[in-house]
Write a structure and sequence with these properties.
This protein has 269 residues and is of the alpha/beta class. Helix content is 39%, strand content 20%.
Amino acid sequence: MLTDPKATKVRGVAKLVKKDARQETGLFLLEGPQGLAEALDRPKLILEVFATEEALARHPELFSKATNARVEVQLVSDQVLAALSDTTTPQGVVAVCEQFDVGLDVIIERSPKLIALLAQIRDPGNAGTVLRAADAAGADAVLFSNGSVDVYNPKVVRSTTGSLFHLPFAIGLDLAEAVASLKASGMQVFAADASGTPLTEIAASNSLSQPTVWLFGNEAWGFEPEVLALADQVVSVPIFGAAESLNLATAASVCLYMSAFAQNTGVSN
């Protein structure tokens, strides 16, 4: 059992909380049993798992699955686990994984029908929740532009609750180039913005059934005019009550699901 939170190995792994260390090593931290459960479906991405005795006792089936997948599980003290976590209440499990983003060309080759493109999204919780919503809506990929939060940030990873392992994603994209490539592949690009045509009108026109990229802007300032100009259409989520606005993740969920409804009408499983 590892018991010293200042041990060289522990300190080396703990550095992955920082973006510079993640970029240098190509690794990231995955915290929590739910995330590990999803990652174990792709065990080659997992280099090592650290867990407390309490976590082992609480999730025996999870660690049995890890053993069967030949994933090393290192028993650690609560103090060591706390040193590896950036949360105030650690969940008893931290894994070291290899980064696995893909290029935009790989995504386009798969003839996607629904994509979320995040333009300079900075909030980790929003980014992770949008990725999770895209997964739930059956989207084919999530794209992150230059200037967006690092998808391997521990807060983003936790916010995805395992969806990070379910669909391909690309990072660090030049926004104009990405939009041009997606349009060239036959996809329409809708920018979600309060200044646009109400989503209800867009849905009535049946255009949501077409292959679509939803472009979502920064939480604080939205879109620059030149970015809005890249879209085929600007679309707003109508507010029928007294709320001043919707937060980014909620609005993105609505847009993605409206497309999913249109694209899957009449499709049986």
